[in-house]
Design goal:
Layout lengths: L1 E3 L4 E4 L8 E5 L3 E9 L2 E6 L2 E6 L9 H17 L8 H4 L21 H16 L2 E3 L10 E5 L5 E4 L1 H4 L27 H7 L6
Antiparallel strand pairs: 1-2, 2-3, 3-4, 4-5, 5-6, 7-8, 8-9
Organism: Streptomyces thinghirensis
Protein name: Integrase
Length: 202
């Protein structure tokens, strides 16, 4: 979808695993990216990250409209000469590589007592259910790169989707299929998941 500002036309590219949308002009010129973090929208440009805050009340629950509004700001900054073009690699979130101990919190998560306590509880729950996080806890509604220890699948998960509801255990359907990691849809199957994770037998 292409949108026109008073100075130039732009479009949103395909989002990466962190749901960052590249902002493009022409066929391939990348001028930044926009993405959501919790309820705020952020821009990533040659001048770094900038938090635009939450969308207007009328746009709540409409991520595409909020993304377009954020991208329009990037286009305006580019047209004014305040930012420069970037490569797609510059605005794309790389797949994390596990190298040493994983920090408790994602770098954008403030180190408050509440966040630390929540992250500790979440990390314990991940270990119980055989998930290996590759980064610190990013909050419940942000994508989080993890590895399934039952079959080797890797990809983004959302803690809000992984945790059980109302004190119940999480679903045994753990993730989509993956040709890259040889993982079948749902993981190793309901019966095997229950055998391999002690919490389901309690």
């Amino acid at each position: 979808m292409t949108t026109t500002t008073t100075t130039l036309a732009f479009r949103l590219g395909t989002p990466d695993w962190e749901r960052r949308y590249p902002v493009l002009i022409g066929e391939t010129t990348v001028i930044g990216a926009v993405f959501r973090w919790h309820r705020d929208w952020l821009t990533l440009t040659s001048e770094g990250e900038h938090n635009l805050g939450r969308p207007e009340k009328g746009r709540r629950g409409v991520p595409q409209a909020a993304a377009q509004a954020a991208a329009a700001q990037v286009a305006t900054e580019y047209a004014a000469g305040r930012i420069t073009a970037m490569s797609l690699t510059d605005v794309t979130a790389a797949v994390p590589v596990l190298d040493g101990d994983v920090p408790l919190l994602h770098p954008r998560m403030p180190e408050t007592p509440r966040n630390v306590e929540t992250a500790q509880q979440v990390m314990t729950a991940l270990a119980v259910h055989r998930w290996k996080p590759y980064t610190g806890f990013p909050g419940s509604d942000n994508p989080w790169w993890q590895e399934c220890e039952l079959c080797g699948w890797q990809g983004p998960r959302y803690w809000s989707h992984q945790r059980g509801r109302n004190g119940e255990l999480p679903s045994t359907h753990r993730h989509p299929a993956s040709a890259q990691f040889g993982a079948p849809a749902g993981c190793v199957g309901d019966t095997k998941v229950r055998e391999l994770i002690a919490a389901y037998g309690q």
